[in-house]
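Hi V.,

Quick status before I head out on leave. The structure for the redesign project is tokenized and pasted below; the design run finished overnight.
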């Protein structure tokens, strides 16, 4: 029960911390929602956090006697093989995707990553190289998970090799797409792996003592990520033929925000400050659209079920997906609590937050048990991605998330075929 309580505290703290960072970021930037409903957004997010927490507690109390089926740990040569699978799989994936984009589709990346993105979006279909590459490159996220959750089980050189390979896969994939969401999803998988890691006490203490190197490496990676995001923003400005201040102003306006008086004074201090303003506005504008959702009387379409309907449409189950929500026409999105309110008002916020809490509680029990196969791992990934990304967007709406989960399924299949036993991801 002690392990369950510790995991529960970690899960809930991570979720609360994500909302705190979102709130502080929105306070820090010189922009606000076009329609300010501060009391509403505070009540909405507080209600979400409260009922997710209550739902998780209730789930744990109901399933207190939960006992997992016994499983076998992945150790020795099998663990090394999994590290190699992640490294070589992600590198092979990015090479296949690069071949498809450059030699098959003929995309010119010398014009800048953002311009190349629009050229790529204008293409249709996908070659075998593209399909296989898209599947394999997401093993990079599995690699990050292994390095953080099981890195102490392999040599330092192997750990560094796999982490470097994973970063090449993730940043390479983001560059080929001219996008940013891959970086965000990579940061979240790092957090998830840290939360669910089950290293023995003596190993954990040793890891903590050496954590200064991990922090240094993390800081370097963070700097690279920030520089990449800044490059993408500058690339968008170059395409539009505008300066950084203008692209930030237009971006905030498109995201249903409006600048404050201080916004126009920043250029006199340091124009580079518009980079973090644009980035944070884009990342957390779901709280702006949530406030507007409260203010408008008509809320067409759906945010909760639209991503699911797209998947069902692709599978041929639905003739066409549901209509997206009000803000989708300009590419703006909404936070998860905002999506609950948009579709079902306050009743939906309470009920759906509680259901998500049950999913979180189930994930805590799975992670605490330690014998986690691909199905249980999928539950953990979806639950934690949804809660950590809740102040930003409904996490399950990321198509990449489904590929990340599939990467864990591929690893499970690999272990079943090669070693004749299922994967225990948290053993």
């Amino acid at each position: 029960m002690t392990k369950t309580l510790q995991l529960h505290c970690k899960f809930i703290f991570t979720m609360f911390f994500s909302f705190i960072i979102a709130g502080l970021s929105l306070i820090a930037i010189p922009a606000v929602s076009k329609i300010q409903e501060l009391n509403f957004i505070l009540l909405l997010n507080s209600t979400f956090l409260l009922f997710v927490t209550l739902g998780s507690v209730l789930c744990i109390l109901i399933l207190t006697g939960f006992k997992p089926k016994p499983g076998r740990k992945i150790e020795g040569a099998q663990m090394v093989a999994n590290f190699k699978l992640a490294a070589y799989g992600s590198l092979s994936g990015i090479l296949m995707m690069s071949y498809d984009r450059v030699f098959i589709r003929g995309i010119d990346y010398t014009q800048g990553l953002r311009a190349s993105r629009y050229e790529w979006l204008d293409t249709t279909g996908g070659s075998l190289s593209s399909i296989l590459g898209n599947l394999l490159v997401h093993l990079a996220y599995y690699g990050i998970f292994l390095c953080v959750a099981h890195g102490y089980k392999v040599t330092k050189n192997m750990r560094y090799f796999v982490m470097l390979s994973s970063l090449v896969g993730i940043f390479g994939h983001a560059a080929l797409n001219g996008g940013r969401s891959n970086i965000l999803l990579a940061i979240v998988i790092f957090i998830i792996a840290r939360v669910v890691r089950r290293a023995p006490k003596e190993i954990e203490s040793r890891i903590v003592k050496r954590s200064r190197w991990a922090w240094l490496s993390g800081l370097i990676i963070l700097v690279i990520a920030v520089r990449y995001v800044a490059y993408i923003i500058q690339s968008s400005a170059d395409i539009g033929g505008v300066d950084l201040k203008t692209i930030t102003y237009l971006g905030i306006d498109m995201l249903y925000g409006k600048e404050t008086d201080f916004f126009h004074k920043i250029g006199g201090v340091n124009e580079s400050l518009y980079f973090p303003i644009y980035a944070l506005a884009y990342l957390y504008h779901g709280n702006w659209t949530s406030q507007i959702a409260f203010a408008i009387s008509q809320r067409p379409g759906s945010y909760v079920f639209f991503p699911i309907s797209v998947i069902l449409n692709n599978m041929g189950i639905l003739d066409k997906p549901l209509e997206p929500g009000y803000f989708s026409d300009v590419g703006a999105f909404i936070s998860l609590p905002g999506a609950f309110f948009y579709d079902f008002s306050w009743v939906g916020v309470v009920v759906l937050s509680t259901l998500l809490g049950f999913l979180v509680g189930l994930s805590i029990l799975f992670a605490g048990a330690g014998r986690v196969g691909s199905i249980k791992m999928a539950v953990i990934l979806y639950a934690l991605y949804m809660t950590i990304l809740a102040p930003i967007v409904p996490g399950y709406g990321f198509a990449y998330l489904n590929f990340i989960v599939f990467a864990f399924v591929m690893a499970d299949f690999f272990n079943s075929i090669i070693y004749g036993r299922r994967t225990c991801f948290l053993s």
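Above is the designed sequence. The first strand starts at residue 31 and ends at 33.

G. will cover questions while I'm gone.

Best,
W.
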